[in-house]
């Protein structure tokens, strides 16, 4: 199982190219996706709680997700590879990535058509222990897609779950439970998030939602700086302004990386970009 996990990370083609940028919308806390689509982009600001309007927004989001899933499935493999490479190169060269000492990042899954993160993860894990960034990656805990973010220091710490997604084993080789990000003794600098659809309004939420909110509370309690939230997006995931609406559950991210480049959204991203 360990060698299988190694092959899936190390032999995944570093894939990625360009069009104009933008950003995202969300699943409400009580409506979880059946797979691991973490972020969807959002547009017009509308915090109206009218149930008919909210229902209409979710219907539009559902239609958009269905269309994008089809588009991603039919995406030309060469273009996907070019865009994956471009996005990962931007991240790896970014000052906010280089300066990070501790981060949360997802292990990409080709079946879910997520932007590839194999080069990013491999670069973090290939450093000598004393130079290595602390890395937390998600583990799905139940059928509601609730997640924990567990610390890994090697590809050997990953296993392939029943959905053929790489995730950390709960215990290490010594039988000790892996550290959850909520048990961290030092702050996390960066969250790297997969996306689903993005629009110029640049608002977002994601299935790390509950865990992220809990971490934010922890950071506030300990007077830590909040992590930079950066979403990754293929060019075809960027949609027109007004394509989807915003609900009160949508949460802003700080920046978006598309093949076109780094798009800062919040003042924090402008400061660190």
UniProtKB/TrEMBL annotation:
It holds the Pfam family 5-FTHF_cyc-lig. One of its GO terms (biological process) is tetrahydrofolate interconversion. GO terms for cellular component: mitochondrion. InterPro entries: FTHF_cligase, FTHF_cligase-like_sf, NagB/RpiA_transferase-like. This is 5-formyltetrahydrofolate cyclo-ligase. GO terms for molecular function: 5-formyltetrahydrofolate cyclo-ligase activity. The lineage of its organism: Eukaryota, Viridiplantae, Streptophyta, Embryophyta, Tracheophyta.
């Amino acid at each position: 199982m360990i060698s299988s996990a190694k092959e899936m990370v190390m032999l995944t083609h570093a894939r990625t190219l360009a069009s104009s940028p933008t950003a995202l919308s969300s699943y409400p806390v009580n409506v979880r996706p059946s797979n691991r689509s973490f972020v969807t982009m959002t547009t017009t600001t509308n915090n109206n709680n009218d149930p008919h309007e909210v229902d209409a927004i979710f219907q539009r989001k559902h239609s958009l997700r269905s269309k994008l899933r089809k588009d991603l499935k039919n995406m030309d493999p060469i273009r996907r590879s070019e865009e994956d490479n471009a996005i990962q190169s931007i991240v790896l060269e970014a000052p906010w990535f280089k300066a990070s000492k501790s981060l949360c990042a997802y292990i990409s899954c080709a079946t879910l058509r997520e932007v590839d993160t194999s080069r990013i993860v491999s670069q973090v894990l290939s450093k000598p222990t004393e130079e290595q960034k602390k890395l937390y990656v998600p583990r799905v805990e139940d059928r509601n897609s609730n997640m924990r973010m567990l610390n890994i220091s090697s590809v050997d710490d990953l296993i392939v779950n029943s959905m053929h997604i790489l995730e950390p084993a709960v215990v290490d080789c010594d039988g000790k439970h892996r550290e959850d990000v909520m048990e961290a003794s030092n702050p996390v600098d960066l969250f790297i998030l997969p996306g689903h659809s993005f629009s110029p309004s640049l608002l977002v939420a994601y299935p790390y939602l509950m865990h992220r909110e809990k971490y934010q509370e922890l950071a506030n309690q300990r007077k830590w700086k909040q992590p930079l939230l950066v979403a990754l997006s293929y060019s075809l995931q960027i949609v027109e302004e007004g394509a989807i609406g915003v609900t009160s559950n949508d949460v802003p991210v700080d920046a978006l990386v598309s093949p076109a480049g780094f798009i800062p959204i919040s003042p924090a991203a402008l400061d660190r970009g």
